[in-house]
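Researcher: Structure for this, please.
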Amino acid sequence: MRRILVVEDEEKIREVIVAYLKKEGFEAHEAAGGESAWSELANQPFDLVLLDLMLPDMNGEELCQKIRTAYPTPIIMLTAKSSVSHRIHGLSVGADDYMVKPFDPQELIARIRTVLRRTNQQELLADRLEYGEGRLMIDSHAKQVFVQHKPISLTPSEYKLLLVMARNSERTFSREELIELVMGFEFDGDSRIIDQHVKNLRQKIEEDPKNPLFIRTVFGAGYRFNGGSL
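Model: Predicted structure, token format:
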């Protein structure tokens, strides 16, 4: 069970967040201030920290920097400040994502899951992944992809896109999810860039790019990697 630390001084907001986290299967811990949050982090590991910027005893950005120097734990900032400059500053001091109050708890849960997927290195680790009876092989240690036992050249974004989808075979990803997983939350371009990356990948790994066997389009939803029988 993923363990989340909720650092929020407003009790009602904290209670709502904790209730939603528990409903979604997370183990939720609470801290009303920076000092208590730091004590919680020192006593046990957490998978993610939800960090309010306006704390009574410590600036949230200072706590974020302090956490980042000591722990690899991903951080989502919670704040009433909605300007782009504040968001950029929050990301620059070590936050992985940024939620502006008031927010929909369901959206927060979705953001949490996205950040956890993106920061969980185990999702991107595998000695060797093979599909289509060896027609496609990914060697994650060498960061090399083979088609019909011959190495092919991929850009870093193409490689990460392929690896993320292959490690989550049969799961449908939206363009927005792939943008965050591959390009990062700070990417501010058109999400349709994923379409171009998919097109390029199909040209390199598919026998017939117009009738792809590995990377399937799910109309109205996004893309799915077919790792089963071809």
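Researcher: Any notable elements?
Model: The CA atoms of residues 163 and 192 lie 19 Å apart. The two ends are 34 Å apart (CA to CA).
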